[in-house]
Protein 1
Amino acid sequence: MRTEDVLAAILTGLWRWDNATGIVELDAEAARLLGLPAEPTELTEGAVRSRFHPVDWNEIDGVVNLALAEGTLAESRLRVMDEGGRVIRTVRSRAKPTVDDSGLHLVGTLQEVAEPDPGRAARSPVTGDWRRSREAFLLDAGRALAEARSTAEVLRVAASLSMPGFSPDGLAVFGVAGDRLTIMGQHGYRPGDEDPFADMPLDTDYPAAEVVRTGRAIYLSTPEEYRKRFPATWPLARRFGRESWAFLPLVVAGRTMGAWLAAFTHRVGFSPDERSVLTTVARMLAQALARAGLAESERELSLGLQRTMLPVLGPAIPGMEVAARYVPTGGGLQVGGDWYDMIQLPGGRAAFVIGDVQGHDVRAAGLMGQLRIALRAYASEGHRPDAVLSRASRFLYGITEGGGGGSDADGARFATCLYLEVDPATGTLDIARAGHPDPAVLMADGTVLLRPTDGGLPLGIVPDTDYPTTRMTLEPGETLMVCTDGLLETGGHDMETGWLRVRKLLEEYDPHRESLEVLADSLVQAVHGPGSHHTTGPLADRREDDIAVLLLSRAGEPAGRAAPPRRVVLTIAQAEPERIAGARRQMRELLHDWADEDQRDSAVLMVSEMITNVLVHTDGDALLVAEARGEHGGRRLRVEVADASDELPHRRRPGEMASSGRGLVLMEMLAHAWGVDPRGEGKSIWFELYEGGTPAAG
C-alpha cells in the first residue's frame, strides 16, 4: 500500500513546497482540507496563503526558522478560510524543513483538529495580544542589545529582559575557553552559586556543555525530565528550586561560542511560540556578544598601538612649559596617522614635531610610526629643520608606491608635518613646514596671531623637495600652538571657521590662573566634549578626523599684560602673490581690538597697496614688518614694507580709469605719518597710525 493511501485512510493529507519555484504540491486529502476539490493539485504560494487566516500565516516563517535552528519538525495550527472569509476548519501542519544547494524544501502533513476550547484559549498566554507583546519585546530587546558596547553592557541588558508571559527568573551566559565551559555572567543567583559551573570540562554531562558540543537547544520542562536526561549534574541544579530550563546555543557565523540558560520557577511547556522567542533572543545575544568582544579586542589593540607609537613628552625644558594631546578618529581602531613628538638635541635645544599621515587606519598608524622614527634619527644626526624634512620626504616616498618599490594595495600616501627647533635661552624658533597648517601665537596681552611660515609640499609626494626655514622669537609670556587639521575642521567647520573657534578659546585662556594643560583640555573638549584625553580612552563616534595639538609656552612675566609690542614679520616672494591675502589677514588680527575700525580698514588697504607695488614694480621680494606699541586706546601702529630696489616711488595722478598709481595718494590721505627711507640696498616705505589720533608718548 502506498504512503498516500495510508495517510488518506487516517484523513491526513500530504504536501510539498519548494522555495526555489514557489510551488506547493497537494495530494487529494490535503486539497480537500484546504476547501478545494479532492484531487492532487499544484498551487502557487499566494494561492495557498489565501486559504489560511492571515494571522496564522504570518507565524509560519518563525516556526520554520525555529525548526531549522533546532533540527526539529515545524508544527503549527492554521485556520482554513473559504472564499467568503469564514473559518471552515482548523488543521495541524507538521513538516520537516531541509536546505540544500537549490534552497529550502518542506515536506509535511495536514490533519484536521478540533477547535480549541474558548475558555482555555482565553487563559493561554499564546493569544493575539501575547503575540503583539512578543513582537514589541523582541524589537526592544534587539535595539537594546545592538546599542550595548561592551560584554558587561550586553550581560546587563540580557539580565533586564522581561519576556511576555513567561519571563525567566534565572539567567546565565556560558562561554568557552579551550575545552572548558566558563560563566561570563549570571542573574537571579547569589554570589558564589556559579562556582561549580565556572570551570567545567565540555565533555561533562551537563545541558550547557551538551549544547556547546552539539549546537542544538535543550528544553527541560520538568525536574523529572532534567533528572532523567542529566542525572550526574541534576544535584547541582536541584538546589536552586527551578521547575523548567531552556539551554540555547549562542551561534555566530556557524560557530557555537557558548550557551544561554533561562531558568523558570514555574512550569513552562516550551510551545513553538515560546521556543521561537527564546531562539530569537539567543541569536541576538550571540551577535551582541560577538560585536562587543570584537570591539573590546580592537580597543585593546588600539591602546597597545597608542602606548607603543605615541611618546610621552620628554624631560622638562628649563624656561618652557609644554602640553600635548592626541585624539583618534571615530569608528574602528582608535589609531590613526596624526602624531606629535619631542626630541632632545645637544646644547639644551629641543625639537618638536607634529604631523598627519593620510588616512585613519592601521596602515596610516604604521607609516606614522616609521616616519616618526626616521624624523628622530635625522634630527639626532644634527641636521637643520629643512634638511630633516627633505630626508623625511625622501624616506616616505621610498617606502610607499610613490617610490615604485612599495607593495601596498592602497597606493602611495603622503604626510603633512611641521618641525621646529627651539632655543629655550633666547626663545628662538626655527620652523620648517611641509604642507601643514601654520602655527599660531598667543601673545602676552591676549592677542592671537597666525604666524605664516615658509613651506613646501607634503612629505612623500616627490623625492626631492626643498623646505625653507622660518625663524621667529617666542617672547616671554607667549604661547605657540601647532595642530593638525582635525582640530580645525571637525564639527562641520572648514579651515577658516575652525580657526575662528580655536582662536576664541586661545583668547579666553589666562596663563596667570590656568596651566597649559587646562588650555590643551579646553581645545580638545571644544570639539569632543568633556572626558576626551590625549592618549587613552574611547571617545564619542562623532569624531571626524584625528587630532594632534602641541602647545609650547615660554616662561616669563612681562610688565603687565599689555606691555609687550605686537609684531608681525612676513616675507612675500615674487612667486607667491597669493600671500598678499595672508598679509591682509595678519593686519586684521594684529589690530583686532583697535578702537577705530576705519583705521583698521585703512591699515589693511595701505599694506595691500604697498606690497602689491613691490611685486609689480620691482624684481625682488617684499618684507613686511608691522608693530603696534603702547596702551589700549593710545597705541601707535608702524608698518614698514622693504624691498631691494633703489628706485624710489613717485607720486602720480591717475585718471579715473587707471588701475594703478594710487599708493602714495592713499597713504597721504589715510596715514597720520608716512615716508620713504633709502637703505644701503633698497628702500623702506612706512606709515604710522595713532589709535587716539595723536602720537603715543614715548
Protein 2
Amino acid sequence: MSLRSRLPAILVALGLVVATLLAFEPVRENGFVSFDDWIYVEGNDEIREGWTLEGFVWAWTAVRGSLWHPLTWFSHMLDVEFFGLDPVGHHATGLILHILNVLLLFLVLGRMTGSLWPSAFVAAVFALHPLRVESVAWAAERKDVLSGFFWMLTLAAYAGYVRRPGIPRYLGLAAAFLLGLLAKPIVVTLPFVLLLLDYWPLERSQGVAGRSAIRRAWPLIREKLPLFLIAGVFAVVTLAVQPDVTLVDWEVLPLEARLPNSLTAYALYIRDLVFPNNLAVLYPFPTSPPPLWQPGLALVLVAGVSVAIATVGRSRRYLAVGWLWYLGTLLPVIGLVQVGFQTRADRYTYLPSIGLLIMVAWGAADLQRRFALRKLWFGAGAALVLAALVFATRVQLTHWRDSVTLYERALAVTSGNYPVHSNLGSVLVSQGRNAEARGHYQRALEIKPDYVYALYNLGVWLQRDGDVEAALEHYRAALRSDPDHVRSRYNLAVVQAQRGELEAASRNYTRVLEIDADHVSAHHNLGNLLRAEGRLEAAITHYRRVVELEPGHPRVHYGWGHALQLRGELDAARDHYRKVRRVAPGYAEALYERGLAFARSGRLEPAIADLREAAELRPDWPAPLRALARLRAGRPDPKLEDAERAR
C-alpha cells in the first residue's frame, strides 16, 4: 500500500491525537481526589516507594480496591518512580494510554471493515466523549485505560491472526488478553466480542460448512475455548477476592431490586451517551424502590431495540454486533453482582459504548448510501457533534479539579447522595471546615440513617470535638449496621481503653484482628493492654507481629522492651530501647526505661546519661528527675520502678 493511499488514515490519526489532547488539556490542572486515590497512590505505602522488588511481590498478592490487578499496581509504581506524587505525571500517563486506545481502535476497525470514515467517527467519539473523563482524569481508574489498551491490542492481534492463522499469532493474542485481565477483570467479555467480530465485519462463519447456525459457529467457538477458559478462571478469582465490605449481600439487596436497576442502567447509559449532562462521580442506590415506570420503560427500550435488530436480520449485521457488544460487555458491571451501592458509573461505559458507536457510525453510512444523501452534510454534522463533545469534556474535567469540586458537583446533579455527603464531610474536616463537615454527615444520616461510613465519620468528628459519649453511640450504631466495620470497632476499643474499660477494649481489639489479622494499631494496642495485665508473653506476640508488618515502629519496640524488662530480661530490653533510639531519637519514655534498666543492672553512668537526656526532652515530666535524684543519693532501687512509672 502506497503512502498516498495511506495518507487519509494518517491524517485522521493525527487529527484524533490533536483533538484528544485539546479535549483533555485541562487535566493538567487537576490533583488527586479523596475517592480511592488514597488507596491506589497517595496513601499506599507500597506504591509510594516506586518500583521495588518488595512492591513487585506485593502487587501479585494485593487485593485492595476490591480487585486483583497486579499490572495496574505496576503502572502506578512506575508513575511514582518517574513523577513522584505529582498528579500531573499520573494524569499524563492516563491520557497517553487513552490516546493509544483511540488510535488502536481506529486502526482495528479500519483494517477489519475497510471503512475509513465510520471507523474514524467511532474512534473520535470514543476519544472525546465526556463519559471518558472518569476513566482518564481519575488516577484510581488507571485500570480502565490500561485494560483498554490490552483490549485494543488483543483486537489488533486477532485481526492479524484471522488474516494469517498460526500458533504464534494465537499465543500473541492470548498473551495480550491475559495482560488485559491482569489490569482489570472487566476484560473477561473479550472472547465473546471476538465471536461477534467473526459474524461482522470478518464474516468468518460464511465459509464454514453446516446447515445450522450452531454448526457453522462451533469451529469459531472451539477456536476460542482457551480464551474462555482463561476468562472463567479470572471471573472465579475476581468473585473470590471481593471483600465483604464491597460485595453486597443478596439479603441486603435482593434480586428483585437488582434486576430493575440493571434494566434502568442499560437505558441510562444510552441516554448519557446521547446527552451527557449531569454526570457525577457516584450515582447512589436509592434508599426506597424507584417507581415501576422507570424499569418498565427501560425494558420496553431494550426489548424493542433487540426485536427491531432481529427483524433487520443479516442485511445490517453491524447493528446486531454493536447491540450485543453493548449488552454483553456491560453485563459484569450492570449490577446483578453488586459491588458497592452505586446504580451505575460513567467508567463502566469505557469499552461497552464502542458497540453503540458502531451502530451509529455504520448506520449513518448506510443511510447516506441508501438515500444518496450528500456526504458534506454528514461530515458537517459529525464535526458539530465532535466540537460539542470537546467542549463538554473540557467542562467535565473542571469538576474533577479537586475533591471538593468533585463532590459538590455530584450533589448538585444527583439527589439523595448520602455517600457523597459523607465523603465531602471528611474532606472538609481535613480542611478545618468542621461545621460544614458535620452538616454533611448529618445530611447523609437523614437520607440513610444506617449508613455505616457516615455514622463512623460523625463519631470521629464528635470524638475530636470532645463529645465522647455521642461518639461511642455512633460507633455502636455503625457496628449495628455492619458488625465487621473495622474502623468503628477499633475506635470503640480505643475510647473504651481510655475510659478504663479494659476488658471491653480487649474484646474489641481481638475482634478487629479476627476481621483484619494485619491491623497494626490493633496489635500494638492489644499488646499494651496485655502488658498492663501482666500477660507479657501474649503482649510480646502482638509486638512481634507489628514489627513483622511495620519494621522500625518505635512505640512497639518501646512496649516490647518494657515487657522484657518486666520479665527481667534486661539486655534484650535494652536492645529494643536502642532500636527506639535509632528510629526516634527524641523518644523520652524509651530513654527513661533504658536508664532504669541500666540502673537495675548496676551500670550507673549510662543510666544517669539516659535519665538526664529524658529529663531534658520532657522537662514537664518529673519521673526522670526523681530517678536521677535516687541514683545520686546512692539508692538505685529497682523496686521503685513501678511507682515511678505511675505517671
Protein 3
Amino acid sequence: MIGWLTSTNHKNIGILYIVTTMTFFVAAGALALLIRSQLAFPGNTFLGPHAFNQAFTLHGTAMIFLVIAPFGIGLANYLVPLQIGAPDMAFPRLNATSFWLFAVGGLTVFGGLLAYGGAAATGWTAYVPLSEIAEGTGAGQDLWIVGLTLVAVSTVLTAINLLVTAVLYRAPGMTMWRMPIFTWEVVATAVLILMAFPPLTAAFAMLLIDRHTGGHFFDPTYGGNPVLYQHLFWFFGHPEVYVMILPFFGVVTEVVATFSHKPVFGYVGMVISAFAIAGLSIGVWAHHMFTTGAVSNPFFSAVSFLIAVPTGVKFVNWIGTMWKGAIELSTAMLFAIGFMLNFLIGGITGVMVASPPLDYGAHDTYFIVQHFHYTIGGGSLFALFAALFFWFPKMFGIRLGEGMGKWSFALLFVGFNATFLPMGFMGLEGMARRVYTYPDVGHLALLNGISTAGSVVMAVGVALFFVNVLVSALLAKPVPDNPWNGYSLEWLTSSPPPEFNFHTLPRIQGKRPAWDVASGAAP
C-alpha cells in the first residue's frame, strides 16, 4: 500500500486516478438518487430546500470536476506513455503531486458536509451574488472554492506534463502523425486546459477575496459587476465540456477501430477536427449568457453552430470506420455505440439552444438539463465504461466478464434514456431547473416518476459493473497480452506492463505497430 501511495510511476498514478474518480462517481450517483427521490412526485418533503441544494451542488460538482474530466486525465496518465513508447511521463514527481492535489481537493469539497451549515449549496456554477452571501453559504462554500482551486492547479500541472511527454518523449519511429487518435485527443485537451483553467482559478480567487477581505469584484454597489463572474466562469465552463469529451472521443475511436477490425477512417480529419473543436470551444462561452443582454448573441450563436461541424466529422469517421468492417459487438463496442447514439441527441439539442430565440424559451428549464446530461452522461460516461472494459486487461492482466458487462450496458442504456429523455418534455412544459419541488400540472408528475424509475435502473447497472469487477478479480483468469487484437503500441507489451513499459521496443513503421508486427511487416 505504501508503495502505491508514494509511487511516481505513471501507470500506478493512472490507476489511482481511475479508482479515485470511480469512488467519487459512487458518491455522485448516491446524491443523484437522493435528488430523483425528492423529485419523484409533486410536493415531496423527502429533502428540504437546503438539503436539496447541497445534494445537487455536490452531485454536479463531483461529476464534472471529480469524475468525468479526471477519469480522462487518469486514463491519459496510464496510456499516453505506453502509446508513444515512453518509459514514463516527462515529470514523474510532478505527476504524483498533481494526483494528490486532485485527491485532496476533492475531499476538501466534500468536507463541507461536516461544516456548520452544511456543504456548498449554490449550484456547481456558484453564481454571484448568491455565492457571496455569507448567510447559508458559510464554511462549506469556502471549502468548495478552495477544493476546486486545488483541482484546477492539479489539472494545469498534468496538462503541462502530458504535452511535454507527447511532444518530446516519443520512441524512435513514433512521429506525431503516427500517434494513436487517443493521444492526439489528449494533446488537444491539454492545450484546452491551459487556456481554460487559469480564468476559473482567477474567478475563485476573486470570489474568495469578496467573501472574506472586503473585495467588491462582483458587487455592483461598489462598482463591481456580477456578469464578470459569468464571463470568467463560462470562459472555463464551455471549454471544460470539451475537456470532458475530447479524451473520450479518442476512447471511442480506438474501440471502434479495434472491434471493426479496420484502420481508423479519416485519421487526418480526426486529428484536425479535435483541434478545431478545441479552438472553437474557446469562442462559444457566452452562449450560456444569451439571456443576460450583455453579450453579442449573433456572434456567439454563429460560433456555437460552427462547432457542430468538426464534431460531425468525427461521426462520419466513426461510421466510415465501421462501414463494411467485421464488427464484433463486445461490451466495449456496445458502450461505444451507446455513446454515439446518446451524444448525437445531446449534440442536436445543443444546436437547438445555440439559437438565441430558442434558448430564451429553454433557458433554466429541464430542457437544458436533458441536453447537458445527454452530452456528458450519455456521452462521456458511456465512453468511460467502454474504456474500462477495453483497457482493463492491459492494466490488470484479467478481463471483465462479457456476460455481466452486456447486462450492465443494457441496464445503463435503458435506464439513462428513461431518466433523461423525459426531462426534455419537462422543460417544454416549463419545469424550472434547481427547484426542489414542483406543482402537479400537466404531465410533470408522470414524467418525473419515469425519470426517477430510470435512475434506479441505472443504479442497478452500475452496481452490476462493480460486481463484475469483483467476480473477475476473484476468478483472475489470465488473458493474452493483446486479447482484442488492438493495433496501437500499448498492446505490444505485457499485461500488465513492466515498470518502464517495454523490455524491447519494436520498430515503429506506421500508425498500427501491433498489426504491423502481427502481419510480419515489422520485426
Protein 4
Amino acid sequence: MITALIRNIDHLEGNIIMKKKVLLFALSAALCLTGCSNKYKNMADDQMQMGNGKVQIPEREEDTGKVQIPEREEDTGEVPVPEREEDTEKEESDGKAAITCRVENPGWEYYFAGEENTDVKEYCALHLLSVEKLAEDAEEWSREKDSWFTENGLDRPQFPYSAGTYHYELTNGLFLQISDAGTGKGKAEFDFSEFQYADVYKEEYSPYVDQHIFYAKAENGILYIAVAHNTYADFCPHTGYIMALDLSDGHVIWKSEPLMNNANSFVVAENEIICGYGFTNEEDFLHILDKQTGKLVLQIPLDTKPDYIIRKNDILYVQTYNENYAFEIMRGSAEESEKSTVEAEKKEESAFMKNYDGEYEKEIILEGTSRRYRMVVVDAALGSRLYGLIKSQDDGRTWEEVSLDPFNSQLGMAVDFTFLDDKIGFATLAHNGGDNADLYITEDGGNHFEPVAIEEKLFALPDGTEYTPYDYPQMPYESNGVLVMLCGQGSDGDYNGGDQEAMAQYQSTDGGHTFTFQNLKRL
C-alpha cells in the first residue's frame, strides 16, 4: 500500500517535470518563429509546412496578432532551432534553405524603399498592329476567347503555372509557394494576408473587397506580384497593385500606385512592367511602369478591361473583355514613347476596308509567320492602277489596312512585291504594258515605298547603237549576306535571246537603296 502510494507520487512529480519541459520547449520555439530569417523563416502569425509543397494554415480563433515574446535578461542571442527532418528536406543543393515569411504591407499608397537610378532609361513603345472585335453571341464570344491562346501559340496564365525557371502555386488566394520548375524543390513561401483588406472601403460591399494574388513572376532575385479585388474601385479604391519584393527575404522594394493592374497577367520587360487595369464604368488602360521604382511611365487607353497581357518575342498580345490586340514592342526613351504611335487609339476604318470583298492583285506570306500581305487595287483609270497594301496577322482570317497609297500616288499597270522581314520589303510597278518597271523599297513595313536607284548598263546593238535592254527588275533577295537582284527585259525584250538566255545581275551594299551592275547571268 505504502509502496503503491510512493509510486503514484513519483509519477505525479514526473508529469509536473515533463510539463515544465514542454513549456520551456514551446517558449524556445516561439522565439525561433518570430520574423523572416535566412535559415528558415516562419510566419509570425501562422505556422506553415512545406513537406508537400502546400501551405497548411491551422485555423485558430485565438490568433489576433503577432506572437509576443516575453523579455528575459538571460536572452543574449538567437535561440537555436531544433533540427527536424523536414528542415533538411527543404535545403537546396547549394545549401541555402527555402524561406517562409509574412510579407509586411508598407501602406496603401505608392511606396519605394530604394534609391532611384537617375540614368536615362529607354522604355518600350507599343505600336498597334491589329485589333479584332470578339463576337457578340455569348457562345461564340467564349469560343473566340479560348481559341485566341492556341491560335497565337500562347499559354494561359492561371495558377498553378511555370514561368521561366520557377513554378508558382497559390493557396487561399494569398499564400504563394515558389519552387524550382526543374527539380520541384521549394524556393520560398509568402503570406500576403496583410493585403487582404484595405483601410478604406464601403461597409455594405465588404464581402466583395477582399483582395487576392492575380499573377506573379520572379526574375533576377526579384518577385513581381499583382494583388487586387474583383469589384468596383468606388467600393474600395485601394486595389490593383503591382509590387516588387526581394526574393531572398520578402521585403517590399516598391509598391505601385493603386488601380495599376487587375489583369490576370503582366509582362516583365527590359526596363518596365507592362500591366493593365479596367472595370465596368471605369477607365481601361494598359500601363507601363518603371521596373526599378514602380512609377507610372505611360498610360495607353483601351476600349475595355484587359484580361490577359502576354509577350511572345517582340509582339505583345492583349485580350480585353471584347477585343484582341496585337502590339509591336519597340524601344525608345520615355519622351519618344509618348510621341510615337504608342497610343492604342484605333485607326478609323477607311471606306475601302469597310467594303473590302477579298479581291487582291498579289499576295505573299512572310516566311515563318502567320502574317500575310496583299496588294489591292484602290482605284483604276485608263489601264493604270493605284495600289494599296493590306495585311493579316492571323493567316488571312482578318485584314487591316497598312496604306492605301504606299507609292505616293504613283500608278502602275501591274505590281509585284516581297518582304524580307516585317520592316524591309521591295515592290515593282510596271509601265507601258509591261515593257519596263520601277523598283521601290520600304523600311517601315509597307507604309511608304521609296524609289530605288539602279545603275544604267548600256549594251550595243549590231549597228553600234547603245541602249539599256535590262529595265524590268525582279524581286531582290539575300545571298551570302548581300542583296542580289536580277533584272530582265520586260515584255518587249528580244536582246540576245531575251530573258530566256540571260538576265543582268545587280548587287546592293547599302541595304537596297542602290544597285550596281555585276554581270550577265546565263539561265
